[in-house]
Design a protein that fits this description.
The protein has helices at residues 10-22, 31-34, 41-47, 91-105, 120-128, 165-170, 172-184, 197-213, 261-275, 288-296; strands at residues 2-4, 51-57, 60-69, 74-82, 110-116, 132-133, 138-139, 147-154, 158-163, 216-223, 226-234, 244-252, 280-285, 300-310, 316-325. The chain is α+β, with helices and mostly antiparallel strands.
Length: 326
Amino acid sequence: MIRPGRDSDAEGFIALIGAAWAEYPGCVLDVDGEVPELRALATHFAGQGGALWVAEHDGQVAGMVGTRPIEDGGWEICRMYLAAGERGSGLAQRLLETAEAHAKAAGAERLVLWSDTRFDRAHRFYEKQSYVRQGAIRALGDLSNSLEFRYAKPARRLVVKALDAAAAASAERRLSEILIGCVEAGASVYFLPPLAMEVARGFWRNVAKDVATGGRVLLAAWLDGALVGTAQLGLDMPQNQPHRADVVKVLVHPATRRAGIGRALMRRIEVEAQAHGRRLLVLDTAGDAGEKLYSAMGWQEAGTIPGFALDGRGGEVATTFFWKRV
């Protein structure tokens, strides 16, 4: 059962957080010295305009999460903890969805959270929920010598952003799920089905490296808080083509197509190209949907090569090349 948290849950909160911290060497929970608000946490969140929830199992606190407003239309997800015995049950996702829904209903434009750099299990969970690393690591100066990663994502509507190297690395799993879904749906994007998760993740690791070296721009598209699309701008061109860039891997998860995501990605690609001094863009595509989109957005067809690629059954697939000046 998930219910609003109460100040009387203090002992359960302290026990839950203490057990979670005990799994990581060097994490010290000094309640009265560093986090006295745990003694009356519901009142603490209410005083900040936020809210607190507890997951109760057999009369015990099995999970918790809070949220509160921050600057510039953001809401922070706070105090997200789950009992070890509840891992894999779906309870963590239900708790997070509860907090996110409250924040969105209150007008949140973006969602932010901080997580200790040692909490790798939590990082994997947040990344699965479409959060990406953002900004610098912060030091708390506490007894645990805590360093924290900042995670964030847009909360509502369709938003396209360019990812830096840290964000690209943290988006690896979700981008892999998008790539796998597109390959399974028949997209001709260098891979054949079934595409293994580790192969997909290896591809995105290399993309993150290119982002880090400045050879590639990686875009991500969120729809109502879910990371559902991506596109890339390849900047590593020959010496005599510094004015050109390649548009590659324009991908939209099959479950969210026809929502304007591909068009939004392509508009942002042109903005990024201009920002990097590139005025000639080139891409190739196999499939009517892509050709219709690119033609509608002013791209010029350069020609079609029959049998350029193979499909999952070994059949030959034609590929059409497009170009555009921006």
